Amino acid sequence: MAQLSLRGIKKRFRNVEVLHGIDLDIGDREFVVFVGPSGCGKSTLLRLIAGLDPISDGEFQLNGRTMNAVPPSRRGIAMVFQSYALYPHMDVYENMAFGARLMGLDKAEVEARIAEAARMLRLEPLLKRKPRELSGGQRQRVAIGRALVRKPQVLLLDEPLSNLDAALRSDVRLEIAKLHRDIGGTTIYVTHDQVEAMTLADRIVVMNLGRIEQVGSPRDLYQTPANTFVATFIGSPRMALLEVEREGDALALPGAGSVTLPRLPGPEHGRLTLGVRPDAMRLRRDASANGYAATVIYTEYLGDNAYVYARLGDGTLVSVRTGPDESYEPDTPVHVEIALEGAHFFSRETGQRLSA
Amino acid sequence: MSAAVEHYGDRRGLLGTLGRDGLIQIILIANTVIMLAPIVIMVFAAFKTSAQIYQHPFALPDFTHVENIVKIWTETNFLRYLLNSVFVTGTSITLVLALGTMAAYAIARYEFWGAGFILMFFLAGLTLPLKLAIIPLFILMRDLGALNTPFSLILVYVAMGLPTTVFIMTGFIRTLPSELEDAARMDGASEARIMWSIMLPLVRPAMVIAGIQNLVPIWNDFFFPLIFIQNDNLKTLPQGLTTFMGEYNSNWGVLFAGLTLSAAPIVLLYIILSRQFINGMTSGAVK
User: Fold this and answer.
1) Is residue A355 included in any domain, yes or no?
2) Residue A138 shares a structural domain with residue A259
3) CATH number at residue A257
4) Which residues on A lie below 8 Å from B202 (Cβ)?
5) How far is CA A215 from CA A25, A226, A350, B98, in A?
6) Are A60 and A48 in contact (CB under 8 A)?
7) Which of A219, A304, B137, B179 could be A85's S-S partner, Cβ–Cβ 3.0 to 4.6 Å?
8) Does residue A180 sit in the same domain as residue A297?
9) Does B8 score more than 60 pLDDT?
10) Which of B186, B201, B202 faces A73 most closely, judged by CB atoms?
11) Residue A117 lies in a domain
């Protein structure tokens, strides 16, 4: 059982407020990913949950108990650090035993727990090695093993894949997902990589500038982003935002013509932001198409499909997913058609989503 | 790339024939000779009579002639001086390292009001020649009743050693990743345990440097014992050895034997610790 509840959490470093009131509930056995650009406060929030930094304002409860003043080791929380932070002078076994012994466990129990973690993470042949004799992926597994030995209710992972090379990253990502299921605890994972967030999370918390922008399942965030920040942060290549002028059913883009879309949300007249992902656009060569005029810049060929980058009449760069066999020479004039079901509408002033 | 190689090979002269490494070797060998010569002469002289020293100062001695060493051991207070030196130096170094490391850890890691000032305060000690303060120090020690006790020396040596130690250790501790301490905190280690089990093993190379840095001047110090210690039973080695230097005649052989014996422990310690010493000097250069 591990229910976390954050209420109005604020964090100030001297006079600078870096978290402006975080409200969040995390359920038992949930895999939650904090994602956001550098400096958005996601790692700070993780350190507050861990108890490594004091909370300036607000309340953090774990299973109904206020944790603000509880020292890190008494919270039932373990953490895997970005640099792994393995004790360099201890071998793998000692690294894992250090915390377990400090919990006051007897020798047999310590050994049993290490054996279990070592088996789960395939560390048995490495137990007598020092951290410097391990590869990056092995160090990563030791760091996770050290956290597991303490049998935490909540496991915190701070950008655990950022020090691994690309090939290893997807393997370890799978392992972490499997591990989360096997342990059956609550996992909180911090990353700046939206792909990691999308693939691992039950729920994603998107953060920006010390605030939560949106909380939801990967599907929610992708299909109904709450604002332009989430819309452009989730999904790759990113969603294009077009600053259009609405007149009835017509959406005019300066210098690129006008597109007619039925059943638009919001007021009949005015300016709004139209968001379209690469897969909701189609390129047409004929000028009569219901699309915005654009010029092809270049094409990224990826084998199973391709992305064509085109500049619209008003200067906005959009990427459009096309079939791998379609080819467009640079400087070809095209029209970009927009599928209504893939169109997102946001208020120009607030950036918030306009619902139909 | 290849042009540069040709250019390098085309050059003639010492640098061309020996190469840069060869030149460095020559300089290092010359340096070694210059540094070792006095020590070798000292050791040789320890096996000679005064007359032999004057006649053939650089000649190989008869190493079976151990009369000087026997004399030092049996007819002088050498052993007492040696024990005094070991006690004073050992206690001073232990205190300097213990206090200096703890102070440096606090300055480097804990954020508190005045941390910067305290570091500057320690560093200011580097610029202060303690010998200038000898008269007030003497009065202070007299009033404390510490004259003619080893504690007068230990107090001064600890004060002398702390600035460099805090300086070296603070710099070193700052290079260690703070995530290690966070990890230990998550593991449930107390601050004292973090210091002892995590930080101490990691700062050992820096402690060896700070230790050696302080060891040699304290072991060799002649000035403070001369002022503070009159009781022959409390004299340290450098001070005690001066008894062999008379106003009219000196027993040079015995003096050199004493010097050799007094230098030996430091040289041995240095050799034993040199690996750690070198590790410590280069660590931090490469991450």
Assistant:
1) no
2) no
3) 2.40.50.140
4) 88-89
5) 10, 9, 18, 51
6) yes
7) B179
8) no
9) no
10) B186
11) yes
Domain end among A233, A257, A279: A233
Residues A227 and A270 in one domain: no
Kindly report the backbone phi and psi dihedral angles of residue A132, in degrees, each rounded to the nearest multiple of 5, phi listed first.
Answer: -70, -15
Q: What is the pLDDT of residues B241-274, one digit of tens each?
A: 887 776 566 778 888 888 888 888 888 888 888 7
* pLDDT at residue number A129: 92
* pLDDT band (50, 70, 90) for residue B69: confident
Residues A133 and A112 in one domain: yes
d(CA B276, CA B205): 6
Contact B183 A79 (CB under 8 A): yes
Given B183, B193, B202, which is nearest A85 (Cβ)? Answer: B183
pLDDT at residue B56 in the model:
84
CB–CB contact A102 B193 (8 Å): yes
Per the domain annotation, does A352 fall within a domain? no
Do A85 and A197 lie in a common domain? yes
> Are A254 and A141 found together in one domain?
no
Q: Which of A47, A82, A102 lies at the smallest CB-CB distance from B187?
A: A102
Task: Assess whether A34 and A123 both reside in one domain.
Answer: yes
B179 and A99: CB-CB below 8 Å? no
Nearest C-alpha of chain B: how many angstroms from A305? 43
CB contact under 8 A, A83 and B177: yes
How far CA B175 is from CA of A40, A91, A245, in Å, comes to 26, 22, 56
| B199: closest chain A residue by CA | A87
Contact B187 A73 (CB under 8 A): yes
Amino acid, single-letter form, for residue B213: Q
Specify which residues A158 forms β-bridges with: A190
- A93: domain CATH number is 3.40.50.300
Do residues A336 and A291 touch, judged by C-beta distance below 8 A? yes
- How does pLDDT run along chain A (356 residues), one tens digit per residue? 689 999 999 999 988 999 999 999 999 999 999 999 998 999 999 999 999 999 999 999 999 999 999 999 899 999 999 988 999 889 999 999 999 999 989 999 999 999 999 998 889 999 999 988 888 889 989 999 999 998 899 999 999 888 888 888 888 888 899 889 888 889 999 999 988 999 999 999 999 999 999 999 999 999 999 999 999 999 888 999 999 998 888 888 988 888 888 877 777 788 889 999 999 999 988 877 788 999 999 999 888 999 999 999 888 999 999 988 888 889 989 999 998 888 999 998 899 998 75
CA distance A175 to chain B (A): 22
User: CA nearest A151 in B: which residue?
Assistant: B187
Residues in CB range of A54: below 8 A, 6 or more apart: A48, A68
Mutate to test the interface with B, among A89, A114, A153 (most CBs of B within 10 A): A89
Separation of alpha carbons B265 and B268, rounded Å: 5
Identify the closest residue of chain B to A73 by CA–CA distance. Answer: B188
Determine the distance in angstroms separating the CA of A50 from the nearest CA of chain B, rounded to an integer.
Answer: 8
Report if residue A187 sits inside a domain.
Answer: yes
Nearest CA in chain A to B183: A85
* Whether the Cβ atoms of residue A17 and residue A57 lie closer than 8 Å to each other: no
Contacts of A98 in chain B (CB under 8 A): 184, 187, 189, 197
Q: Decide if B207 touches A, using CB distance below 8 A.
A: no
Specify whether A150 is located in the same domain as A279: no
Overall number of domains in chain A: 2
State ipTM: 0.83
Domain that holds residue A31: 4-233
Largest CA distance in chain A: 79
